Automatic annotation (TrEMBL):
This is Acyl-CoA dehydrogenase. GO terms for cellular component: plasma membrane. Its cofactor is FAD. It comes from Actinomadura craniellae. GO terms for molecular function: flavin adenine dinucleotide binding; oxidoreductase activity, acting on the CH-CH group of donors. Residues 19-132 form the Acyl-CoA dehydrogenase/oxidase N-terminal domain. Keywords: FAD, Flavoprotein, Oxidoreductase.
């Protein structure tokens, strides 16, 4: 079993796309830092690694390689989906991290570009590119589960500001953010999916807290990568409402579409890298001739190739000017990759055996243990796998909704 040649592809790329790939490859050969080649990037890097990553992020920014899919007029490079896919593959080929501006680039940016006023775009987007503004997400709420439209956090107009009170949960990236993008109900009398506003909220104003308190939620790994968020009279100018007051649902759908399907064209790259690390583990442990192990590896490899083929299909659509079915692609991609990675980490822990149960000093996890724990949540955040299947059935295939059980009936 050998890794596929990245230069061999069934996609008939245009001359311009191939020229772009060559440009990126040449730039990486000149600029990729050797000390970052092949280095896994944990969710919370150690100080020395973080400093190296920050310097690499600055280099990418100076070269115009941050927020590359954004239009040129807003600081991006206006890259097509095909070009972004090729760029990601070249970074993987060079073995260096393809850093982004996180939620600001992948979730806030697309929503702002699609729905904001020109003034808002000019004000909101540049600090994301520079890294000055880092965002966390305030969508989910304790009482709503995956029913995003069931939110109860309130936003009330007070002169030129919106005053926000309520509670959010599963706020990822809170520990490094200085802004939050959140959904609030600004018209409680409106139908469920109306009367919602999409708001950008600074976590500090004039150097003082802006009514947002984070209470970390500790994962089974001992890490606290997300938190509950309590908003008490948090204030933001009405100029930070994107898409108009009470019109936030359609803006949120742009963000969710980016969250669920944004990396579908290149998802296989990370999985292939993870797979070959697992193969190395198998070789080190003398398990290469174990029939059961080989069957599990064969299953994992075939699933990665399904994910790769699906991504190539999306790239082919983009190359031919076909937009595809965004809603269906986002949901099917989310189901496929999240369920696959959960199973892959289970296989890894099984192959590692008793060593998988041993942690370092202070409950320090190794790479496989950390990925195993993280994968538990992947079928939940961004819309659970069950919710994604309902979206596909009801909103893509037009199937009737699942009937609610009669009141008092056993489920």
């Amino acid at each position: 079993m050998t890794a596929p040649d990245p230069d061999v592809s069934p996609i008939p790329y245009s001359d311009a796309a191939l020229e772009f790939r060559g440009e990126i490859r040449d730039w990486l050969e000149r600029n990729a830092p050797d000390h970052l080649r092949g280095v896994p990037v944990p969710r919370v890097p150690a100080p020395e690694l973080k400093a190296n990553l920050d310097r690499w992020a600055d280099t990418l920014t100076e070269a115009g390689l941050m927020c590359v899919a954004w239009p040129r007029e807003y600081g991006g490079r206006g890259l097509s989906g095909v070009e972004v896919a090729l760029m990601n593959e070249e970074f993987a080929r060079a073995g260096v991290p393809r850093l982004t501006r996180g939620m600001g680039e992948g979730l806030v940016g697309p929503a702002v570009i699609a729905h904001a006023t020109e003034e808002q775009k000019r004000r909101v987007l540049p600090p994301i590119i520079s890294g000055e503004h880092e965002y966390c997400q305030g969508f989910s709420e304790p009482g709503a589960g995956s029913d995003l439209a069931g939110l109860r956090t309130r936003g009330e107009v007070d002169g030129t500001h919106l005053v926000i009170n309520g509670q959010k949960t599963w706020t990822s990236g809170y520990y490094k953010a200085n802004w939050m993008f959140c959904l609030v109900r600004t018209d409680p009398a409106a139908p469920k999916h109306r009367g919602i506003s999409y708001v950008l909220l600074p976590l500090e104003v004039d150097g003082r807290p802006n009514g947002v308190e984070f209470r970390p939620i500790t994962r089974m790994s001992g890490q606290a990568l997300f938190a509950e968020s309590f908003l008490t009279d948090a204030r933001t100018p009405l100029d930070n409402v994107i898409g108009g007051l009470n019109e936030g649902w359609r803006v949120a759908m742009t963000t969710l579409g980016s969250e669920r399907g944004g990396s579908a064209t290149t998802q296989h790259v990370a999985f292939e890298r993870q797979f070959w690390r697992l193969v190395d583990e198998v070789r080190k442990r003398g398990l290469r001739d174990d029939v059961r192990v080989r069957e599990q590896l064969a299953w994992a490899w075939s699933q990665i190739q399904v994910i790769r083929a699906t991504g190539l299909g999306l790239v082919a659509d983009l190359a031919a000017g076909r937009s595809g079915q965004g809603l269906a692609n986002g949901s099917t991609s989310k189901i496929r990759w999240s369920e696959f990675q959960r199973r892959l980490t289970e296989i890894a822990m099984d192959l590692i055996g008793p060593d998988a149960l041993v942690t370092g000093a202070g409950y320090e996890l190794d790479e496989w243990q950390d990925e195993f724990f993280a994968a538990r949540s992947h079928t939940i955040w961004g819309g659970t796998a069950e919710v994604q299947r309902n979206i596909i059935g009801e909103r893509v295939l037009g199937l009737p909704k699942e009937p609610e059980p009669a009141k008092g009936a056993a489920r």
